[in-house]
What we know:
Blueprint: E1 10-18, H1 34-58, E2 63-66, H2 70-73, H3 75-83, E3 87-90, H4 103-121, E4 127-128, H5 142-148, E5 153-154, E6 175-178, E7 183-186, E8 192-194, E9 197-199, H6 205-208, H7 212-224, E10 229-235, H8 251-258, H9 264-274, H10 280-290, E11 296-298
Parallel strand pairs: 1-2, 1-10, 2-3, 4-5, 5-7, 6-11
Antiparallel strand pairs: 6-7, 8-9
Bound molecules: zinc ion.
The site of zinc ion has 5 residues, from loops.
Amino acid sequence: MATHIPSRPASFIVSFDVEEHHRIEAAAGLDVPSNVKEEYGRRMEATTHRLLEQLATAGVSATFYVVGEIAHTHLALVRTIHDAGHEIGSHSWDHRRIHRFDPTGFREDLVKSKDALEQAIGSRVYGFRAPTFSLVRVTGWAVDVLAECGFEYDTSVFPVRHDRYGIPDAPRGPFLAIGREREIVELPLLTYQIGGMNLPVAGGGYFRLFPLAIMRAGLRQTFTAVPPAVGMLYFHPWEFDPEQARLPLGRLAGLRTYVGISRTTARLSQLLAAYPFRRAIDVVREIRGSGVPLPRFSVVQPE
Ligand SMILES: [Zn+2]
């Protein structure tokens, strides 16, 4: 892989979507017994504590997008994350994709999640990440609801072509997402542009399955992008828990979910040592304070 010297300022964010393992999209429709769900809850808590130690060792502040319900079931965990200096954002109330809602229902879900998390940490919540990156063209109306609910930024758009998510023509760097009437700062997930295609290298299989060099190539492109440039990465606690019981997924879904899971902790350490990661809200405020106008991009489906 070609190397080149970083030439422009860039910001890097490491984020964790905090949810129990059975909430993943690949497990939608599975009837997971309640004792298995409880076990995944315990493991999520233990793994998140290990991740907090890893972040502390590396001296990195991160952003945790937490499923609102977890503020009730794992209150101490949410407080511990916040007290360690990390940002707490919302990852919906119970991990339903935006497609499942109309604007009124989505608003209720957002308010419930934001309130629960804010009460847990005694502080405001500024950022949102949609389950399964479900802010896409057909759910573009969600931008209006996010702005109305007082969120300062969103980080749910993947500028890629993918069977489950993505707005392929969205900007790869921070932009102002324009809804029907309102707008919000959007921090899209990291992509690596090669041969005219955007690869979704921010996490998932690109973190676990492929050589780390591909994710790093995406991060390096951030250094050459027009400022303000941001490299946004995402992980889940369950991706750092190779010992957990496997969900009964189909062959392909099982492979996608569990491949490479034994090497993730070491890979995360490599990344944490290599980039100056910051909390998403700090990056958003710096961008706003700089006065540099962001590109405007309408995410709603053309009528
Ligand atoms: Zn999620």
